[in-house]
Design a protein that fits this description.
By secondary structure, the protein is α/β, with parallel strands linked by helices. It has 6 helices and 5 strands, in the order αβαβαβαβαβα. The protein has a 5-stranded parallel sheet with strand order 3-2-1-4-5, sandwiched between helices. It holds the Pfam family DUF218.
């Protein structure tokens, strides 16, 4: 094999090894830093925003609203055809008087869409602080998208912990491992998009 080609192959192999190592270390850091508790459970914010994707998220948001942690609740990414009464009925524990304080968003289909939809609602209400309710493994990407869309609004994370996701010993549970690896990949894509879109927005280009 010619020396030049051998050198090229070695360079490619070394670069691939470095990249793989960086991805593995990044993933381990991502999993290690996932929230394992609610940092400020008693704090009151102007509003609560729940991202759909699990029944425990909605029930947690409704419970927080009932306990006075905020005066309004916005649920983003709701299936079309579901109204507030149906949402309260499915949640079972939510009292009927909460109907007046819950708003549903039907447009979002992605986490980035959740952030856009929620930002429009938050800005329309002139709120300055929001408690964000979503799964713990989903929180890093959600915070990234929400803070990018609402830089002037304080976002207080409120993670929930689905029983089927084993954060502590994820390597022993193939389902949890696959979910966390997939979420890490989506988080990296969101980070790259933020790096690209941020400067474009600063230059006046919509993103």
């Amino acid at each position: 094999m010619p020396r030049g080609r051998r050198r090229l192959l070695l360079t490619v192999a070394l670069s691939a090894s470095v990249l793989l190592g960086a991805l593995v270390l990044g993933f381990l850091g991502f999993v290690t830093n996932l929230p394992d508790k609610v940092a400020e459970p008693m704090r009151r914010t102007d509003a609560i925003v729940v991202l759909t994707g699990g029944s425990d998220r909605v029930s947690t948001g409704l419970r927080l609203l009932e306990r006075g942690r905020a005066s309004k609740l916005f649920v983003s990414g709701v299936y079309k055809g579901v109204d507030v009464s149906e949402l309260l009925r499915v949640s079972q524990q939510a009292p009927r008087w909460l109907t007046c304080c819950v708003t549903l968003g039907y447009e979002a289909e992605t986490t980035a869409g959740n952030a856009v939809e929620s930002a429009h609602w938050v800005q329309s209400q002139n709120f300055q602080s929001v408690r964000l309710v979503t799964a713990a493994y989903h929180m890093p990407r959600s915070l990234l998208e929400f803070r990018r869309r609402m830089p002037q609004v304080e976002i207080v994370p409120h993670p929930v912990f689905p029983e089927h996701v084993k954060q502590d010993e994820w390597w022993r549970w193939p389902g949890s491992a696959h979910l966390l690896i997939d979420e890490y990949g989506k988080y990296l894509v969101a980070r790259v998009r933020a790096l690209i879109v941020g400067p474009l927005q600063a230059a006046g280009v919509n993103g």
